[in-house]
Amino acid sequence: WALNTTLTAANNKNKIMKQKYEFKNVVAETLLIPLYMRAKESRRRDAVLHDPEAERLVARIAYDYGKFDKAWMSALGCVVRSRYYDQRVESFIRLNARPVVVNVGCGLDTRFQRIAERRNAVFYELDLPEVMAIREKLLPAPAGDNYLAGSLLDTEWLEGLRTRHPDGHFIFVFEGVLMYFYEEQVRTVLRNIVSRFPAGEVCFDVCGPMMVNTGLKPDSLRRNAAQIRSGLADGHKVERWEPRLQLIEQRSYMEFARRRWGLTGIFFRAFPHLARKFSSLLAYRISATE
């Protein structure tokens, strides 16, 4: 509520016109959740990450953000996740000569604007055409960041990337995306990547089987029609799907910003196997051979 009040006052002062956007796809609309959470977090003194661009975007989009204000676990989880993958991308850029960063299901993510370490990296943002049309209007592509419209289930964009960067070192980041797809679809997406790129990294977050089996949703999604369709607790399961993917690490959200999680974090850190039944942050290395 406080953030909405502040942003509304700022809009009135600067005469910024908010615009309402209609989403045909219920999953596409979820892009506003992490955007709002990053904007809220950015204004905190003890912020996990700072994202002034998210603040600016929230101020320009007419939406009932207030319905997310009680979703404290999602609020913290979204920014922990963003910061974790920011750091993985920055590390990848530092360690590779020709880094190509692919943000799959980008929504209105602002990683390109947030991270300091970009060097000679090339960035790509991919999402559905309706989402990319909104992104183009609100956040026109800066130099070094390239926009692609399409479905992550398609392969044309993968072929295009391989053709444009035959010697590139790729990192693919799926943030807040794959849980909305069925397991077989997730396996297909991963297979499409490893069959075309002999090296690199693939990073994504997952909900755990507790979410899938019980129909339980993250607190920010309880008034949204989007469904959690896949999840896993053991990151090594993906290695069995695709032996060319080797688990680098599996992390719990509650390993980060520990003070902010309170007693909930203390409990789940004491029982990490239980935490993984709800959610995980995953990173994999693409191996040239099985």
In short:
Helices cover 43% and strands 16% of the residues. The protein is of the alpha/beta class and 290 residues long. It has a 7-stranded mixed beta sheet.
Mean pLDDT: 92
Distance between the termini: 51 Å
Strand content: 15-25%
Rg to the nearest angstrom? 18 Å
Count of separate DSSP helical elements: 13
Sheet of most strands: 7 strands, mixed
Are there runs of 5+ residues with pLDDT below 50, and where?
7-14
Instruction: State the shape.
Output: globular
Strand order of the largest sheet: 3-2-1-4-5-7-6
Helix proportion: 40-55%
**In total, how many beta strands?**
7
The topology string of helices and strands comes to HHHHHEHEHEHEHEHHEHHE
Q: Structural class of the secondary elements?
A: alpha/beta
Account of the protein in words:
With 290 residues, this protein is α/β, with parallel strands linked by helices. It has 13 helices and seven strands. It has helices at residues 2-14, 26-29, 32-42, 52-60, 72-95, 111-114, 129-138, 156-164, 183-194, 209-214, 236-241, 258-270, 272-275, and strands spanning 99-104, 122-127, 145-149, 169-174, 200-207, 245-251, 279-286. Helix 1 (2-14) packs across helix 4 and helix 3 packs across helix 5. The longest helix has 24 residues, at 72-95. 43% of the residues are buried. The model is unreliable at 7-14 (pLDDT under 50).
